[in-house]
Design a protein that fits this description.
With about 450 residues, this protein is α/β, with parallel strands linked by helices. It has two domains: about 325 residues, Adenylosuccinate Synthetase, subunit A, domain 3 (Adenylosuccinate Synthetase, Chain A, domain 3, Alpha-Beta Complex), CATH 3.90.170.10; about 100 residues, Adenylosuccinate Synthetase, subunit A, domain 2, CATH 1.10.300.10. Helices cover about 30% and strands about 20% of the residues. It is built from 13 helices and 20 strands. The strands form five sheets. It has a ten-stranded mixed beta sheet, with helices on both faces. Strands 14, 16, 17 and 18 form a four-stranded mixed beta sheet that branches. A two-stranded antiparallel sheet has the order 3-4. A hairpin with a 7-residue loop joins β19 and β20. α3 packs across α4, α3 runs parallel beside α6 and α6 crosses α7. It starts with 7 loop residues before the first strand and ends in a 16-residue tail after the last strand. It binds inosinic acid. The site of inosinic acid has 19 residues, from α4.
Length: about 450
């Protein structure tokens, strides 16, 4: 581990997810003892490239790819236990054994087959314009059960086998009745299969289940360094995102308190991640979207296809209006600007600096989705650059135009870009400022 004082930091998305958070978390991990996921579930897709190997993580904190880091799934995460086990097994098959490095909150809720079923059926039944375009991972229905309280299952319940059997049979029957009334009978939902999944989860995951809030407090008391890993992105946040086209959790640092069970008073590094352009998967407003050949070019250059669902991502110019809104909400201290290399070769690069709505120009991000849907982007163009950036290792080596672009982003968003991504590998990250003390840039690129 890099010699640093006790540190607390968080990494989260300033956009609609897929900003490259996994790589930034992975890069920071040698300076941290514990990495905690605090929101979302298997809807997230964090990609980490190590040498020639690519790892796509959905539920596991990206930190577990490092041998000495403890990965924690906090109470605010909704966990599909079978998806989690298949992720653990998938890594084990590739020689990465993470089972002993994982702790799951006894207060975290379980995503069960009827949540995924409801997610799929309700999306299918929704009319055009109302469909959210979810990841079908059961996220919304599971968080809804959590809030409704009568039909939720938490990890602590797994440890009380007999009581759980009766409850789950009752919940499944109620859910079957509700789903068939709303969507017809064309689905399979078997209480025995749900119970079999729960038994698999209990037998394999029980050793990892604990009070993770207590674990984090003890770790902090022992002067250990804590990293918090946000999933999705602030524009998908249930309170602050483009509602109702959002996910169902709190995706920014504000989610740590509830979702990790830890007061983030000392989280001095709040690292907001955004691509050098914008992407979105699923439905909802996207003011700077480019539904043309330029958008297609960004998609192909950046391989913009979903890690979780494989869906092509919608692409557009960097949106300073939404990014500034997200950065202010999260009191960002550092911006990680990823995928700078993808923009190489564009003669000019657009930046959305304001919205034009009903004849008025604004730099405020409105709550009303219908305003966002009819907003026109006010785009400023800056000169592009050429050449492959992937071998660049310092900000000074970047083409002048790329540095000018970064300066423009900093000025608009009001926070420093201290990390920049120039390729998928750990080593292809430029670092400057005080965050350098957390990152060993000379680290080898093998796992
Ligand atoms: P859900 O989280 O599956 O309910 O999906 C709600 C919306 O959030 C959909 O538009 C999804 O495409 C989007 N979404 C959820 N998680 C992510 C993510 O990690 N990256 C990108 N989009 C996401």
């Amino acid at each position: 581990m890099t010699a640093v004082d006790k540190q607390q930091a968080c990494v989260f998305g300033l956009s609609w997810g897929d900003e490259g958070k996994g790589k930034i978390v992975d890069l920071l991990c040698p300076a941290f003892d514990v990495v905690t996921r605090f929101n979302g579930g298997a809807n997230a897709g964090h990609t980490v490239c190590v040498g020639d190997e690519t790892f796509a993580l959905h539920l596991l904190p990206a930190g577990v790819l490092r041998p000495n880091v403890l990965g924690v799934i906090g109470p605010g995460v909704v966990v599909d236990p079978i998806a989690l086990l298949s992720e653990i097994d998938g890594l084990a098959a590739r020689g990465v054994d993470v089972a002993g490095q994982l702790r799951i909150s006894d207060r975290a809720h379980l995503v069960l087959p009827y949540h995924k079923l409801e997610d799929q059926l309700s999306e299918k039944a929704a009319s055009e314009g109302k469909r959210i375009g979810t990841t079908s991972r059961g996220i919304g229905p599971c968080y809804a059960d959590k809030m409704k309280r009568s039909a939720a299952v938490r990890f602590v319940d797994l440890l009380n086998k007999d009581a759980l059997q009766q409850r789950v049979r009752r919940i499944v029957e109620q859910r079957r009745a509700m789903l068939s009334t709303r969507y017809g009978d064309d689905f399979e939902l078997d209480a025995d299969a749900v119970l079999a999944d729960l038994e698999t989860a209990r037998s394999r995951l029980a050793p990892s289940i604990c009070d993770t809030s207590e674990l984090l407090h003890e770790a902090a008391d022992e002067q250990k360094s804590l990293l918090f890993e946000g999933a999705n992105g602030i524009l998908l946040d249930v309170d602050h995102g483009t509602y109702p086209f959002v996910t169902s959790s709190s995706a920014g640092p504000h989610g740590i308190w509830a979702g990790a069970g830890f007061a983030p008073l000392e989280v001095t590094f709040r690292i907001g991640t955004t691509k050098a352009y914008a992407t979105r998967v699923g439905a909802g407003p996207f003011v700077s979207e480019l539904e043309n050949v330029v958008g297609d070019r960004i998609r192909e250059a950046g391989h913009e296809y979903g890690t979780t669902t494989g869906r092509p991502r919608r692409c557009g110019w960097f949106d300073a209006v939404s990014c500034t809104y997200a950065a202010r909400l999260s009191s960002v201290t550092d911006i990680a600007l990823t995928h700078l290399d993808t923009l190489s070769g564009f003669e000019q690069i657009g930046v959305c600096v304001a919205y034009r709505i009903d004849g008025k120009t604004t730099t405020r991000f409105p709550a009303d989705t219908s305003l966002l849907l009819r907003a026109e982007p006010v785009v400023e163009f800056v000169p592009g650059w050429t050449g492959d950036l992937r071998s660049v290792r310092t900000f000074d080596e970047l083409p002048e135009e790329a540095n000018a672009y970064i300066e423009r982003v900093e000025a608009l968003v009001g926070a420093p870009v201290t990390l920049a991504g120039v390729g998928p590998d750990r080593s292809q990250t430029l670092v400057r400022g005080r965050i350098r003390r957390l990152i060993d840039v000379s680290e080898p690129t093998t796992a």
